[in-house]
Amino acid sequence: MLSGLLSTPRPEPGHLLPALAGSIVILFALPLFLILGWNLSAWALAAVLWLGIHALDVVLRRARKSMGNLATSGMQAFGLLFKTLGLLVVLFAVASASPHLALAAALVYALAYTLELGLSLVVYFGSTR
User: Fold this and answer.
1) Residue by residue, what is the 3-state secondary structure of 55-114?
2) Residue-wise over 83-93: b if at least 16 C-beta within 10 A, else e?
3) What mean pLDDT value characterizes the chain?
4) Mean pLDDT of the region 68-88
5) How many other C-beta atoms are found inside a 10 Å radius of the C-beta of residue 82?
6) Residue 14 in 3-state DSSP?
7) 103 and 95 in contact (C-beta within 8 Å)?
8) CA triplet 37, 42, 43: central angle to 5 degrees?
9) Is 128's pLDDT higher than 70?
């Protein structure tokens, strides 16, 4: 049963709904930061990273549409690596100057990403074909 679940080919699900769900997490974090008196720079950093990663994702997705299958796979791998490394470089650079700022931004980003990933998996494995 489980092997059939993992081996069934499915089309790539849409990215809009999971990205919007993650964006809602980012938006709901703003009032929390305001109420608790936390540094808004951390929230802004998480929001900018979130928007930047998704903007790059949109650009890469559009570029992949005009390529062949092999080039598309390479572009997807490069995009995933580039986005991950870019995110880590920014967070490590901020952490060297202000560890609390980087930690708060990383936690907000991680919550949004976790919701996006979970919803993506539910949408992907929830489709029958």
Assistant:
1) HHHHHHHHHHHCCCHHHHHHHHHHHHHHHHHHHHHHHHHHHHHCHHHHHHHHHHHHHHHH
2) beeebeebbee
3) 88
4) 84
5) 13
6) coil
7) yes
8) 80
9) no
